[in-house]
UniProtKB/TrEMBL annotation:
Biased composition (Polar residues): 1-17, 30-45
Species whose genome carries this gene: Hortaea werneckii EXF-2000
PROSITE patterns reported for this sequence: ADH_SHORT (PS00061)
GO BP, sorted A to Z: mannitol metabolic process
Annotated catalysed reactions: D-mannitol + NADP(+) = D-fructose + NADPH + H(+)
Keyword Disulfide bond appears in the UniProt entry: no
Keyword annotations of the record: NADP, Oxidoreductase
GO molecular function: mannitol 2-dehydrogenase (NADP+) activity; oxidoreductase activity, acting on NAD(P)H, oxygen as acceptor
Name of the protein: NADP-dependent mannitol dehydrogenase
EC number in record: 1.1.1.138
Length: 373
């Protein structure tokens, strides 16, 4: 019935005489009728139009650079240079305060991380510290791994003290331990994972937050620093992921791994040049997808969180030295502001917990809409 009806409609359309257009718009419109249609426009009539000044033309058909506006906010600027500070010059971070209330099972039960052990690389500062706190507040024991063990020890104690202060009714405070590791060194990674297992008895979750960025134009970027950047961001992610997965496979236990990528793995940041970092984060994103497929049979899930511009202690330091950079960044973010590190707490808890049990190989962008414009 449907087929014969469709054939009748096609036949009717092909034999119907074409009515002459009643207006220029109607002639071009498939919706032409016998009633004249009027084109709605806010443009002045042709006789009122003035030729555009060459400097006002919004086209690239003429000479490049005809307008100062062309591409001005979509290019890198070599004047923006930033070298990652040495460890003694890194600003310290503080646990998120004022969250208050009894935290155990205060959300859906599937979001809990109770009786689990999570390892967080780069967990002593910035986003890594917030990730460590998110795991801890959700009931997990946490192994903070960092290049600066003293800072890791301080933050481990801070997290437990903060938990006690904000959860006076808790009869158990999840344990937080501190461990040293050079994440780009295979032997250091193996020793660190073994130490974390010895301290907690097992590992269930991994968050790879160790990473850094620097801003140099690609031609001037020192090769040894590029190797270091890739070593921490890419090699470190790979080494910890495979090390923890090996432990989970030996235990025949499911687990969840979250890579901390960046929106830079999908877009090109402006105005600061950072090609090696962008490429490294793209590698992290695709590594996560690839490992998710490879380990799916064992119940090991791998997902990636890609933050946008986050106002960490280090970012504040950079923007204090380059205040105009903050205006450039926020002008490109639809929500009009940078993110807070604590905006990632719910995301990492969701991806580690059973609440995301059918989510693997995914990328969750937390960027205020930056990458969708």
């Amino acid at each position: 019935m449907f087929k014969s009806s469709l054939l009748r409609q096609v036949s009717r359309a092909s034999t119907t005489a074409i009515r002459p257009p009643t207006s220029a718009f109607a002639a071009a419109s498939p919706c032409s009728t016998t009633t004249p249609l009027r084109l709605f426009t806010t443009s002045p009539s042709q006789k009122d139009k003035k030729p555009l000044d060459p400097t006002e033309q919004l086209t690239t058909a003429g000479e490049p650079g005809a307008s100062e506006h062309e591409g001005r906010f979509a290019r890198t600027d070599e004047s923006f240079t930033f070298e990652h500070p040495d460890e003694p010059n890194m600003p310290s971070s503080a646990p998120v305060q004022g969250r208050g209330g009894f935290h155990f099972r205060r959300t859906l039960a599937t979001f809990t991380l109770e009786d689990k052990v999570g390892l967080v690389t780069g967990g002593a500062r910035g986003l890594g510290l917030v990730m460590s706190q998110a795991l801890h507040l959700s009931g997990a024991d946490v192994a903070i791994v960092d290049l600066n063990k003293e800072e890791a020890q301080k933050q481990a104690q801070n997290l437990m003290d903060t938990f006690r202060a904000e959860n006076p009714g808790a009869d158990h405070v999840p344990q937080v331990t501190a461990h040293y590791c050079d994440v780009a060194n295979p032997d250091s990674v193996t020793a660190c994972i073994n130490e974390c297992i010895a301290a907690h008895g097992k590992l269930d979750h991994l968050v790879t937050s160790a990473g850094f960025t620097e801003n140099f134009d690609a031609i001037s970027y020192p090769y040894d620093r590029m190797q270091k950047l890739w070593g921490v961001n890419v090699d470190g992610t790979y080494l910890f992921a495979t090390g923890v997965a090996r432990h989970l496979l030996e235990r025949k236990s499911p687990g969840s791994i979250v890579f901390i990528g960046s929106m830079s793995g999908a877009i090109v940041n402006v105005p600061q040049p950072q090609a090696p970092y962008n490429a490294a984060k793209a590698a992290v994103r695709h590594l996560g997808a690839s490992l998710a497929v490879e380990w799916a049979h064992a119940g090991i899930r791998v997902n990636t969180i890609s933050p946008g511009y986050m106002l960490t202690a280090l970012t504040k330091k950079i923007l204090d030295d380059n205040p105009e950079l903050a205006h450039k960044w926020t002008s490109l973010i639809p929500v009009g502001k940078m993110g807070r590190p604590e905006d990632l707490m719910g995301a990492v808890t969701f991806l580690l917990s059973e609440a995301s049990g059918y989510v693997t190989g995914a990328e969750l962008r937390v960027d205020g809409g930056y990458t969708v414009t």
